[in-house]
Request: fold
Amino acid sequence: MSLLESIRVALEGIRANKLRSFLTTLGIIIGIAAVIAVVAIGQGGRAILMAEMEKLGTNIFTIYVDWRSGAQPTGKMLELSDVQVLKDKVPGITHISANTSTMEDVRGSKNKKYSRVSGVSSDYEYIRKMTIKTGHFFSREDDSLGRRVAVLDEALADEIFGRSKPVGNIIRIGSTPFIVVGVVAKGDSILGLSEEPRVFIPSRSWQNMFGTYVNSLEGSALSREKVQETMEQAVKVLERRHRSSAQYVSYSMEQEMQSANQVTGIMTLIIGAIAGISLLVGGIGVMNIMLVSVTERTREIGIRIALGASRKDILTQFLIESVVLCLIGGIIGMLLGVGGAFLIAKLANWPPLVSWWTMLIAFTFSATIGIIFGMLPANKAAKMNPIEALRRDT
Amino acid sequence: MIQVFDLTKIYSTGAQPVIALKDVNFEVKAGEFVAVMGPSGSGKSTMMNLLGCLDTPTSGSYKLDGIDISTLDETGMARVRNQKIGFVFQNFNLLPRMTALRNVELPMLYAGIDVRERMRRATSALERVGLADRINHRPNQISGGQVQRVAIARALVNEPAVILADEPTGNLDTRSGEEIMAIFQELNRGGSTIVLVTHERDIALHASRIIHFRDGRLVDDEKVETSLDAVEQKKIMGESNPRQGGK
Ligand SMILES: Nc1ncnc2c1ncn2[C@@H]1O[C@H](COP(=O)(O)OP(=O)(O)OP(=O)(O)O)[C@@H](O)[C@H]1O
Ligand SMILES: [Mg+2]
Reply:
């Protein structure tokens, strides 16, 4: 019997028992839908995370000293002068800034607010891709001379100045007065600056107030591809300059993205695997019902054998029936999964990513389940003794 | 057409082995119409199962249309069942969810005949048994006698070497039985070889020869001088109340 005929016979068998066929394949439907939805949502989530990180800049890096590394740090390992040295010695660096911060009361004309006060270099504006709302960021000269100038973030400016214009006015950080020269807009990345109110002042001014140390260096490289190399060169320069080795820790956005990618990938895999187990359970369900079906159709099998069906014909008939059932379940599940993914994505506001390979895997997976779990029932059918089968009343 | 030598069948499934057939020898020539009779448990069905390649003998040999069946493997047996044998059962054994036409097409499905040819041959087989107007009915939509006629159409559709019928009229009233016998007689006149099991002498007398079984042995081989003609019998029954026969 040809494959086409076998499929037709299988479809007849499935159609003859619509409700049961549906219930049989329900496990597969749910399993495939779950796998597709989970993977699609996971992929969407990953994509959104990557996009956010890209908004922050893929070419930025941070270097700080690992105080926990065990070995005693050799003297001062980061200095303000490092900023200029690195800029001169590492050509791949486009911008570089020191970064040191503390919490302090910041008082405007209206209110005061306990805020994060960061001492940074003038380049910080470019590294963090800041959008200046009013005024300007402080200049290199402001930094080198340690002028008392400050840049507020938008929220803080609103809070401590209310309706009056902050630029040109005085704020007090602790008791020290600073002139506000600019206000930066809130970043559009959800991963961007934290919610806490922030004030940026020149790093030298910061050191004058709080002490002569530097927490970290932040920089940007020419490109995403160059960032790793640039960062490593910077670390080497620092190690030579401060005669210290292996105590600098460096992170690039590229690395962060890779590890975030890995984490979301593993999450997707785990949830996908759990969904996959439900597929397995679905497969066992198919086997179960197929076994019942074979028993119920004993007489039919006997008749077919008497009319000239070989054992192979019977085996293929039931195997194809099982595969077709699972494929139908797979297709329904696929539609449901894709629909579900789009729905959830719409609610969660992120792009659903249904890739063609998930579909392909789901398809082959359901067919494979059909074959594996159809094998036992089909074999049972094929081994039937026709005389006994014909004697049954079912 | 059929040659059986020392055929023996012993069932050893139960507590003690049952000798269902013991050293049976006979021959059926092409174009013969043979009835098989014997008391219940005498081995008639066992014989039919062996002839139909549904079972294998314990010993002895069996040749059908020149083929030594004992040399065949499972696939070979399936092909013989498909090509050389047409079965008619007491309990009809149609697939209940299929139309008459699809039921008759079944043997051709396993013969690998294409859709159009299947359709054509199934239709003409159903015409031969007088059911041209019932081809799209399912078994539960037609009478028992008609169901058996569909089964006969199915048995003859692959033009088998022999038609094997195990008590084909057993579940039918006398009138329907006569109709079935009329079809068999007509097929026989057209050249078909038929072996038919029955409990009723009235039915057996439609054949040209009767072989008798008792306790697994062939005990008598009787030639029927003048066979009953089913068409005549039906006329004799006329319009009067048909006597209830069968089971
Ligand atoms: N599968 C089996 N296992 C064991 N014994 C069996 C089996 N099938 C048949 N027999 C025995 O073989 C003998 C012959 O049975 P068979 O069915 O051939 O009789 P029969 O002549 O067809 O009877 P009936 O007229 O009642 O149909 C009986 O004694 C029966 O009990
Ligand atoms: Mg019998």
Observations:
- Chain A has two domains: 3-52+258-391, 72-246.
